[in-house]
Write a structure and sequence with these properties.
Blueprint lengths: L2 H12 L4 E5 L6 H15 L4 E6 L17 E2 L4 H10 L2 E5 L11 H6 L3 E6 L11 E4 L6 H12 L6 H14 L11 H12 L3 H9 L4 H12 L2 E4 L4 E6 L1 H6 L22 E7 L4 E7 L5 H8 L3 E2 L3 E6 L3 H11 L4 H6 L2
Parallel strand pairs: 1-2, 1-4, 2-3, 4-5, 5-6, 8-9
Antiparallel strand pairs: 7-8, 9-10, 10-12, 11-12
Helix pairs in contact: 2-5, 2-6, 5-6, 6-7, 6-8
Length: 340
């Protein structure tokens, strides 16, 4: 959808006060939380009653974000979440494009008859269910898209808390600008956000310099004991069992960023973190250059995302998941080797 048409339809939707629900994907990350909180604050300026709903708890290192304590968490308060769906007039879907990606309330979302509006930067979107949408895959993050939307209305609509949330979202989804920066406008937008936000250095510290001892020891264990290098495929694999995570008193978000470390080796094109959770095996893929982990995750692991960052999942044992990954690597050998 062309930007001008999106803004036209959005403007018509938000002029009269409504009950609005903002939802994002399961296991929400910094971009999901930051963009949702900033956009909710923006909408409240028009007199709307706005709630943000997530399926499960987000990482502790995001709990400081302005407004985070007001987020409704479905697994903690399912009845309240259901009540929100019953009275909602408009639903904004941020940072995901398939209802199944929102976890435990996906059926409620699919059944809702309210206008659904998408703001997202992931690939392979089915646009049919949406009243209007802003979907651009060559944008660093949903937070960047939300920032552009707010700035379309004017700098006067942007306050310190909103700018802080948006910067946190952009920082986390780009790995501190190490990947997914496709255009110079990203930095221009960040410059405007920094004008209004809390100290950039302070924001970065809240995200990356608040590790617990257990989280740091888990990182060390992951690299020293669990990292497997497959030189023939320029690939590194780290697999962590549920018992190994529990050994380090695992909390949500403690494995955040672990998958990025093997990419610091010159000979590695793809890094994969495989973790065993309650009822599923989760994959986190990262790559360098033109090698698309999105295509690999989509084809073999019921996932997807971006060219250099994607996720996936399987219902099997941890060892079966590792074996499955190794079995498909020969199909990508030339691409992986050439991607160094």
């Amino acid at each position: 959808m062309h930007r001008d048409l999106f803004y036209q339809l959005l403007d018509a939707e938000i002029q009269d006060p409504k009950s609005i629900l903002i939802v994002t994907h399961v296991n929400p990350d910094g971009d999901a939380i930051g963009s949702s909180l900033a956009f909710s604050a923006f909408l409240r300026q028009f007199g709307h009653d706005v709630n943000v709903l997530v399926s499960n708890m987000f990482p502790d290192f995001l709990a400081w974000l302005p407004g985070a304590s007001d987020i409704v968490i479905y697994e903690n308060d399912a009845e309240r979440a259901k009540a929100l769906f019953e009275r909602v007039d408009c639903i904004f879907m941020l940072d995901f494009n398939q209802p199944s990606r929102c976890g435990k309330f996906s059926e409620l979302l699919e059944a809702a008859t309210a206008h659904k509006i998408l703001i997202d930067h992931h690939r392979d979107t089915d646009f049919a269910p949406f009243y209007c949408y802003l979907s651009e895959t060559q944008i660093s993050s949903t937070s960047e898209l939300v920032a552009e939307t707010i700035l379309h209305y004017g700098m006067e609509y942007l306050d310190t808390d909103m700018a802080t949330n948006l910067l946190a979202g952009i920082i986390t989804d780009t790995g501190s600008f190490a990947h997914s920066v496709y255009r110079p406008e990203t930095f221009a937008i960040c410059a405007k956000l920094i004008e209004k936000s809390a100290s950039y250095v302070w924001i970065h510290q809240q995200i990356y310099d608040t590790f617990s001892e257990n989280r740091l020891r888990l990182l060390g264990f992951s690299i020293s004991d669990k990292m497997e290098i497959l030189e023939d495929y320029a690939t590194a694999i780290i697999s962590l069992s549920k018992s190994e995570l529990e050994q380090f008193n695992y909390h949500v978000g403690d494995t955040e960023g672990v998958v990025n470390y093997p990419l610091s080796m010159e000979k590695i094109t793809m890094s994969v973190l495989i973790t065993e959770r309650q009822d599923v095996i989760r994959f986190s893929f990262r790559s360098k250059g033109d090698f698309s982990v999105h295509e690999l995750a989509k084809k073999h692991f019921s996932g997807g995302g971006h060219t250099n960052a994607a996720g996936g999942s399987l219902t099997c044992s941890l060892q079966e998941a590792v074996d499955r990954l190794k079995a498909v690597l020969p199909d990508y050998k030339n691409l992986l080797i050439n991607g160094r």
